[in-house]
Amino acid sequence: MAPLLRNDMRTFTREELQKFDGREGRPAYVAFRGKVYDVSESFLWRGGKHQVLHQAGEDLTEAMQEAPHGEELLARFPVVGELQE
Amino acid sequence: MAKVAREVVEKAGINVDQLVELLVKNASAELTTYYYYTILRCNLIGLEGEGIKEIAEVARIEDRNHFEALVPRIYELGGALPKDMKDFHDVSGCPPAYLPAKIETVEDILKVLVEAERCAVRQYTYICNLTAGKDHRTYDLALAILNEEIEHESWFSEFLGEGPSGHFMRRGETSPFVSKFLK
């Protein structure tokens, strides 16, 4: 599935991404392979936390290698920008 | 709490608090799925729906069995179920298996069922990976549940036309893998 692209795409530094941690009503964004996804609407990212181990605002590229699912589940969510390296 | 049982798991390098949280999330997923499957089963109607109703019922009962089997391990490791049922629902490790807003064919319900089972397969695979060689009892339990979740997935997948499951329906018994934890 191709990622959903939003019109208001922007570039995030890692520091900026950390602000979108899903806590206290803030949006929940996560990065994967340079793309930033908005997972705020996901039941499994409520409060910015995912399956005990992961927090929104992080780059999950490495963590995905240990996950019991692939990137196809992330592709269900809109891409809101790119992560600046 | 089983003090030594918890200590040996900690000594093996597992973050027991995180593991307990994962087990609670999956206990929630099982009990809420049992509830939502009740609604799905009731809506498996007509000639096509009737053919699937019984197998959906087996999955429903086995998911409840999984909840029952997980609870003792949560308490052994020093955890507890949330006091409030609403909180328990909201920490579920899998999304609610809601009845689709629009049902045109039985496939619409089957897609919900297979998605729920696929979430469960991912969850228990992860717990098995986490506990393998470190927490034998949780691993044994998670593996038993995983065996049944994989069968559920393959049943519904077969009905969706994704290929043969290779299985028969259960013959009078439920939870062939998990029942040893329920005795």
Mean pLDDT of chain A: 91
Helix content of chain B: 55-70%
> Which protein chains are joined by the largest interface, and how many residues does each one contribute?
A-B, 11 and 16 residues
How many β-strand runs of chain B?
Answer: 0
Mean pLDDT level of chain B: 96
Identify low-pLDDT runs of chain A.
Answer: none
In total, the number of domains of chain B comes to 1
| Beta content of chain A | 25-35%
Main β-sheet description of chain A:
4 strands, mixed
Q: What structural category arises from helix and sheet content of chain B?
A: mainly alpha
Which structural class fits the helix and strand makeup of chain A?
mainly beta
CATH structural architecture of chain B? Up-down Bundle
Measured between the Cα atoms of the first and last residue of chain B, the distance is 20 Å
Largest sheet of chain B: none
Distance between the termini of chain A: 25 Å
- According to CATH, what is the class of chain B? Mainly Alpha
Descriptive tags:
heterodimer, A: 85 residues, mainly beta, 6 strands, B: 183 residues, mainly alpha, Ferritin
Overview of this structure, please?
With 85 residues, chain A is mainly beta. Chain A has a domain of 26 residues. Helices cover 6% and strands 32% of the residues of chain A. Chain A has one helix and six strands, in the order E-H-E-E-E-E-E. Chain A has a four-stranded mixed β-sheet. Chain A has a two-stranded antiparallel sheet with strand order 4-5. Chain A is globular. The model of chain A has no long low-confidence stretch (mean pLDDT 91). In chain B, helix 3 runs antiparallel to helix 6 and helix 5 packs antiparallel against helix 6. With 183 residues, chain B is mostly helical. Chain B is elongated and about 55 Å long.
